[in-house]
Every structure is written in structure tokens, then in C-alpha cells.
Amino acid sequence: MNQSIDLEAAKAAFFASGGQLVVLEGFTYRPLPPRKGPEAQPAPASKAPAKKAAPSPRKEKMKARADQVAEMAKTMTCQQVHEATGISKQALFRAAREGNFVFRRPERKKSANSKRDAQRQIQRNLKRIEELKVVQRICALRDTGLHRAQVAEQLSLNYGTLVNIIERNGIDFPRVRIRK
Fold this sequence. Notes:
By secondary structure, the protein is mostly helical. Among the domains are: 58-99; 120-169. Helix content is 57%, strand content 0%. The protein is built from 7 helices and no strands. It has helices at 3-16, 57-73, 78-85, 89-99, 110-143, 148-154, 159-169. The radius of gyration is 46 Å and the shape is flat. It comes from Pseudomonas oryzicola. This is Helix-turn-helix domain-containing protein. Residues 29-62 are annotated as: Disordered.
């Protein structure tokens, strides 16, 4: 059967039995009511001036301790202040951050570093002397007419190492031999 025919038959039966058509009201927009937050309420008529609470003895003690630490920080490191006062390092760093001051930097020991630096310098000098001997051999083999790969093979060096030595020492050793 056809649906439109069935619908028409159902409507006719409805109206024949005494049914009436009711029209419903559609949607109408209503804005939200105004907010009743603290900014919407009127200010109190007369407000008494706020009393400043007396600082607690604990806060006074903390302030005095922070001032003492700030004074000590001018001439002492954090470790020295920690040892003198017994205050933890974390608390000292927090006080420094909040009080906007810095501790003195610890001085480095120069005796141990200077020995180590001297040894490193000696090792660098020895490596440089060995490299200069290799440079002399490279120049001698270059003058005999060998090309880079042959020189690297003769000196049992990697080709890349040979190139690095050539560039580091400014040796005139062209990649391709110029034939005359």
C-alpha cells in the first residue's frame, strides 16, 4: 500500500471520531537573567578601614633569619652559611630566591687543576711534535711524486686522517697531480 493514502485515511478517521487540531507555540528566545555575582552587588554603604593584623612572632623570626642570611651571603658561600647556621641548603636557596640575593661563589682549587692542565699541555705538545714529524714525511713523499692515496698507504694512515693533517697544517698537496 501507499503510505500517503494510509496517512490520509488515518487523518479522516481521526477527524470523524471528533478529534480536533491543536497548534502548539513555537520556540521563543529569552535571554538569561543577570548574574548575581559579587561584582553585580552594590558596595556596602560604609566600610570600616581594614585593620592590619599584627605580624606573628614566627613571621618576624623568619624575616630576621632571612636578613641575617642575606648579610652572611655577601661574604660567605652557601656551604659556609649552612655550616655556620645549621639551616638546610634548600632553605638557604629558597631564602636567596625570595630575598633576591645570591651567595658568594666558592673558589676553585688551583693546585689540582694546574697539575692536570700542565699534564694535558705536555700531552698536546707531544702529539703536535709527532704530527710535525708526519708532516715532514708527507712533504717528502709528495715531492717524490706520490699522490695522496699512496702517501696514506706508505705512512699506514687512514685517507681521512691524511686529509685532516694536510688541512690542519696548510700543506700544498693537490688532490690531482698536475702533469707538466
